[in-house]
Amino acid sequence: MKFVLEVELDEAGDAGKELGRILRYWGGNLHHYELTPGDGSAIYDSGYREVGRWSITER
Protein backbone atom coordinates (compact mmCIF):
# COMPACT_ATOMS: atom_id res chain seq x y z
CA MET A 1 0.00 0.00 0.00
CA LYS A 2 1.02 3.62 -0.43
CA PHE A 3 0.41 6.67 1.77
CA VAL A 4 -0.14 9.82 -0.35
CA LEU A 5 -0.11 13.33 1.12
CA GLU A 6 -0.76 16.41 -0.98
CA VAL A 7 -0.76 19.89 0.53
CA GLU A 8 -1.14 23.20 -1.32
CA LEU A 9 1.03 25.82 0.37
CA ASP A 10 0.39 28.79 -1.94
CA GLU A 11 -1.54 30.82 0.63
CA ALA A 12 0.46 29.80 3.71
CA GLY A 13 2.16 32.77 5.34
CA ASP A 14 5.01 30.70 6.78
CA ALA A 15 4.93 27.51 4.73
CA GLY A 16 7.40 25.67 6.97
CA LYS A 17 5.44 26.35 10.15
CA GLU A 18 2.11 25.51 8.54
CA LEU A 19 3.35 22.27 7.00
CA GLY A 20 4.92 21.27 10.34
CA ARG A 21 1.60 21.87 12.10
CA ILE A 22 -0.27 19.85 9.47
CA LEU A 23 2.19 16.93 9.72
CA ARG A 24 2.04 16.88 13.53
CA TYR A 25 -1.74 17.05 13.64
CA TRP A 26 -2.49 14.51 10.92
CA GLY A 27 0.38 12.23 11.91
CA GLY A 28 -1.02 12.05 15.42
CA ASN A 29 -4.54 11.52 14.12
CA LEU A 30 -3.83 8.55 11.83
CA HIS A 31 -4.47 5.96 14.55
CA HIS A 32 -8.19 6.71 14.13
CA TYR A 33 -8.12 5.17 10.63
CA GLU A 34 -7.73 1.56 9.50
CA LEU A 35 -5.13 2.65 6.91
CA THR A 36 -6.41 0.39 4.19
CA PRO A 37 -6.67 1.29 0.50
CA GLY A 38 -9.48 3.77 0.05
CA ASP A 39 -9.00 5.49 3.41
CA GLY A 40 -8.25 9.20 3.32
CA SER A 41 -9.33 12.61 4.46
CA ALA A 42 -9.22 16.27 3.57
CA ILE A 43 -6.44 18.30 5.23
CA TYR A 44 -7.12 21.72 6.71
CA ASP A 45 -4.72 24.52 7.61
CA SER A 46 -4.77 26.51 10.84
CA GLY A 47 -7.44 28.80 9.33
CA TYR A 48 -9.68 25.75 8.73
CA ARG A 49 -9.30 26.06 4.94
CA GLU A 50 -9.03 22.82 2.98
CA VAL A 51 -5.47 22.72 1.62
CA GLY A 52 -5.00 19.10 0.61
CA ARG A 53 -5.73 15.48 1.15
CA TRP A 54 -4.13 12.29 2.35
CA SER A 55 -5.07 8.85 1.08
CA ILE A 56 -4.10 5.21 1.11
CA THR A 57 -3.80 3.52 -2.28
CA GLU A 58 -2.87 0.04 -3.46
CA ARG A 59 0.29 1.40 -5.11
Please give a handful of descriptors for the protein shown.
59 residues; alpha+beta
Mean pLDDT: 91
The span between the termini is 5 Å
Q: How would you describe the shape?
A: elongated
- Taken as a percent bin, the fraction of beta residues is 25-35%
How many structural domains in the coordinates?
1
Please report the total strand number as a whole number.
3
Give me the secondary-structure category: alpha+beta
Instruction: List unreliable stretches of 5+ residues.
Output: none
Bin the helical content. 25-40%
Number of distinct helices: 1
Radius of gyration: 12 Å
What's the assembly state of these chains?
A: single chain
Order of helices and strands: EHEE
Strand order of the largest sheet: 1-3-2
Main sheet makeup: 3 strands, antiparallel
Set out the fold topology:
Elements: E1 2-7, H1 15-29, E2 40-44, E3 50-57
Antiparallel strand pairs: 1-3, 2-3
Walk me through the structure.
The chain is α+β, with helices and mostly antiparallel strands. It contains 1 helix and 3 strands. Helix content is 25%, strand content 32%. A 3-stranded antiparallel β-sheet has the order 1-3-2, covered by helices on one side. The longest helix is centred in the middle third of the chain and has 15 residues, at 15-29. The radius of gyration is 12 Å and the shape is elongated. The mean pLDDT is 91.
Explain briefly what this protein structure is:
This protein is of the alpha+beta class and 59 residues long.
